[in-house]
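Pipeline run #58 for the internal structure catalog. This entry was flagged by the ingest filter as a single-chain record with no existing model, so it goes straight to prediction. Upstream metadata was stripped on purpose; only the residue string is passed forward. Reviewer on rotation: M.T. Logging verbosity set to normal.
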Amino acid sequence: MEIISTLSQLHKFSKPCVIALGTFDGLHRGHVDIIEAARNEAKKQAAILGVFTFQNHPASFINPVLVPPALITKEERRRIFEALGVEVLIEVPFDKELCSLSPDEFIKKLAAIGFSCLVVGDNFTYGAMGKGNKDSLEKSSEENGFKLIIRSLVTDEHVAISSTVIRGQVINGLVREAGLLLGRYYSLTGIVAHGNERGRTINFPTANMELVDLKMAVPAVGVYAVLVNIDGKTYQGMANIGDNPTFGDVQNKRLEVNIFEFDEDIYGREITVAFVQRIRGEVKFSGIEALKNQLAKDKLLCKKVLSESK
């Protein structure tokens, strides 16, 4: 997959391109629908499949205070794009240069690729102040002779799927529901850090991930059935997000994962934790024995949830 990171790098290819345009900040089912429609059209035309999107969330330039927590990392998004068959990824910064382009100027810039078709969602906007929309894009397609495909918003139980809705679900611990809208389990990726190592003393060792400064949406405190990816291999597990109220010695929320049937030293290594379902909220226990008894029950429930989710 070729990656173009600035507008100045736009160039023609050996074949025409079909381009899917969008922010694609969550790469949820609605976003995937747009890309798949572009892929189908590219196949019909024997054309190259491309995606035009941004390196940063538009709010980071317009008003950084309003930047929402992310739903996907840049690396994961690129992997999914490539898995969907994207051959050219135009991933440019949302900056002053881009924001200053009128809708017509934006289309002229993009025309450097030699596209034959553009595919967008029904609520797509473009150009300075977002003045361009599907109506102006239809007019531009008629004037400039390219095909335009406008996809209706994908809905779930009559509600349009959006990154905003999914973000709210994640933050409220509704990870199973968020996964259904994303089309994949919501996940967090990070480096395993040293913790208090208390888990080992009660036979529930954990891999710990610090959540401070993490720019991703963090699920609500509580216990979750999870899948853990380590070096390409997936394990079942249970995770806790919280500050260990039973012991009261953790300053900031952290993610602690007990990986089932696993006993390797993975400090300093990267892991990805995919949240399958929240099984309970965070509880302050009367002591270690009460905590151990509950963790044993949690593990059984997590195993049941994970076996049923296959």
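catalog note: The chain is about 30% helix and 25% strand.
catalog note: The two ends are 31 Å apart (CA to CA).
status: ready for reviewer M.T.
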